Amino acid sequence: MSAHAIDPGTAYAAGVERLLESYRAVPPTASVRLAKPTSNLFRVRAKTNVRGLETSGLTGVIAIDPGARTADVGGMCTYEDLVAATLPHGLAPLVVPQLKTITLGGAVTGLGIESTSFRNGLPHESVRESVILTGAGQLVTASPTEHEDLYRAFPNSYGTLGYAVRLCIELEPVLPFVALRHLRFHSLTELVAAMDRIIQTGASDGTRVDYLDGVVFSAEESYLCLGTQTATPGPVSDYTGRKIYYRSIQHDGPARHDRLTIHDYLWRWDTDWFWCSEAFGAQRPGIRRLWPRRYRRSSFYSTLMRYEQRFRIGDRLERLGGRPPRERVVQDVEVPIERSAEFLDWFLNTVPIAPIWLCPLRLRGESTWPLYPLRPQRSYLNVGFWSTVPVGTTEGQTNRLIERKVSELHGHKSLYSDSYYSPEEFAELYGGDTYRDVKNRYDPDSRLLNLYAKAVQRR
Predict the structure, then answer these.
(1) Are 94 and 107 in contact (CB under 8 A)?
(2) Distance CA 326, CA 361 (A)
(3) How far apart are CA 142 and CA 145, in angstroms?
(4) Pick the residue with more confidence: 102 or 39?
């Protein structure tokens, strides 16, 4: 550390003071919100003239303990910054969500997921302890043994019970490279069966599987992507330039092999925001050649998307072409593995969106999390789809169809995007009385929005 460098712990302490000062400056009649330069939420919210909480001092990595395999981080620290700090120690978070600007606090309170989730569960399960600013303006330490009710209810609360100020999370050892096998399937039933076997055994054809996700291009063309950590040096691919990762998956034979550095594997989806960069022309060879590399990242595409939403550019273009406006269908859902082929068949026959992303998950232990009640010892399949469809006769028609189908199959839907549930349905699915009790205890004056108002009413 240079003579002029600020100790991370000192910077964090100063950041906490600024956070509390900004909380005290919010009028008692106004809702408390964060002031964030970026967001990975995909729902339009009502505007407010009240200044948000000051979080600029909570963005750093406070400490890495290689021996204990833990990291102390500010709640607004991005996974990009955390991974940059852990990889030199041969360590990584147990789950690294796909997009670089997702924050630790956001992944915990909003549920992140990635290709280690079939063995490591969800990000909140690796939190040993968190310091949370509650709606009452208090800093509360929550853990399995202290304020356990808040610790359990915090995941999927989306800032309606408080904000993560500091987190202590577990890390795991990683090797320098990831060897990839992309397996093609012509049947979704066979793909799901193969995925289920890997979840149960942790291996495929006798080879250990450390990372597991998949892509569906159509009912006849789908892939499982199996990753195995390795220290063996050798050539690696680069998908931050002209080549596009998801296109590299496609092939006609039974398997395609590839290799990436562990760093590039963790961020393989970020360069093209999975495949959503296509909407901005960034996958066209002529445009890609001129598109600056520093702007080939999800945060830049999401900025463009916010401008599109603000000025309704897409709807204007559709109108100029004599076409109706389009409904945004940007969702991730979890379906029990034994019902997932049924859901995929229904989706492909009902919703004109492809490709779609597959990511299996299984909770790490026996603990339950009341605001997103997945069952322990049960495998689920996360299905992600992010596009638009022609509008229907009612608002959110396709999104409502998806919600009903997911509930019919005893699945769950993430709340980072548009939702259309009734208050009664929502309470049944997302915590009900448990949420109300924790809300009353830690936010008795309702300084924070409630979850239904935020997730469904877009306040």
Answers:
(1) no
(2) 31
(3) 8
(4) 102
Would the CA dihedral through 252, 253, 257, 263 be positive or negative?
A: positive
Reduce the DSSP state of residue 430 to 3 states and report it.
Answer: coil
In the predicted structure, residue 3 carries a pLDDT above the cut 50:
no
Phi first, then psi, for residue 270 (nearest 5°) are -75, -35
Dist. CA 386–CA 402, nearest whole Å: 13
Distance between CA atoms of residues 161 and 155, nearest Å: 10
Task: Give the pLDDT confidence score for residue 2 in this predicted structure.
Answer: 45
Place of tokens 């997945």: 374
pLDDT at 32: 87
Look up residue 316 and give its two tokens: 């204007």
Residue 99 sits at φ, ψ, to 5 deg, of -105, 135
H or E stretch covering 150 = helix 148-153
Residues 298-343 have pLDDT tens digits of: 999 988 888 777 767 767 766 777 788 899 999 999 999 999 999 9
- Residues 6+ positions from 6 with CB-CB distance below 8 Å: none
The contacts of residue 270 (CB under 8 Å, 6+ apart) are 98, 99, 100, 297, 298
Q: Which residues is 50 bridged to in the sheet? A: none
Tokens representing 284 are 């066209």
| One CATH from 3.40.50.1820, 3.40.50.150, 3.40.50.360, 3.30.465.10 for 8-174+444-455 | 3.30.465.10
Q: Which residues contact 239 (CB under 8 A, 6 or more apart)?
A: 245, 248, 260, 264, 268, 271, 272
The CA distance from 108 to 164, in Å, is 8
For 134-168, b/e burial (b = at least 16 CB within 10 A) is bbeeeebebeeeebeebbbbbbbbbbbbbbbbbbb
Taken as a whole, the chain contains a residue count of 459
Q: For the chain, what is the radius of gyration of the CA atoms?
A: 22
Strand partners, 386: 330
- The sign of the CA dihedral 429, 430, 434, 439 is negative
| Locus of tokens 């109108």 | 319
Q: What is the pTM of this model?
A: 0.94
